[in-house]
Amino acid sequence: MILDEIVASKREEVAERKRLVPRDVLESKAVSAPAAREFRSALRVPGEVALIAEVKKASPSRGVMAADLDPVATARTYERCGAAAISVLTDKKFFCGSMDVLRNVRTAVDVPVLCKEFVIDESQVYEARAAGADAVLLIVRILTDDELSSFMEEARKLGMVSLVEVHSGEELGRAISASAEIIGINNRNLETFETRLRTTVELASEVPDDVVFVSESGIKTREDVEALAAVGVDAVLVGESLVTSGTIETKIDELLGRTG
Fold this sequence. Notes:
There is one protein chain. The protein is an alpha/beta fold and 260 residues long. It has a single domain, classed as Aldolase class I (TIM Barrel). The protein has helices at 2-20, 23-32, 71-80, 99-108, 122-130, 145-157, 169-177, 198-203, 222-229, 240-243, 248-255; strands at 50-55, 58-59, 63-64, 85-89, 113-116, 135-139, 161-166, 182-186, 212-216, 235-238. The strands form two sheets. The chain has an eight-stranded parallel β-barrel, surrounded by six helices. Strands 2-3 form a two-stranded antiparallel sheet. A hairpin with a 3-residue loop joins strand 2 and strand 3. Helix 5 (122-130) runs parallel beside helix 6. The protein is globular.
């Protein structure tokens, strides 16, 4: 399965980085990073669905989608066109990302930045903050309950918030039990990479009202956004349809309902 392969690779990668960078050095960098920006409130815009625009060069299912992608220029375009926040994929092997890309994007924009990573070790939370991340993605599917709670707490101590990602009712229940403040329903099955927008619709009624509700993956049109708004989604995370659109400005206008 693709997800198992990604996680196995990530464990090797993290073990090597932990060997090269002492824990005290990493913690010092995280603590001394510029203060985190407010991510949660940026996603709740009265009467609107906020956009988390993703810097995404490649994926396991599509391969390289945007070979000439300039992460900083793309992030600046996202911000200029009204994105509430920016997501940066930092996995190198499967998504052609890096913490350096996140660091450069964070320096270039004023909106909050999400570290989109397969976090399986506490050290990655510190790496994200050291690179300037304002929020970190935690995927319930690859974490135990204890890991999820622990990583959320470490992120909180560092001033970040966690976007807790789920794909099923069981995972959503675990996220709620862990007191997640932001829950993202991923419409993409990370084991098969099949995408169904209905996943968000089917689980929407189970998301508590006080939780910031995000829908991720497979969002391509204004009609998609409107369908998600109808079930209470606060924000959408969009990457692939932006970087492959040809004209990011036009695509964002469409998604945000500014065309017409």
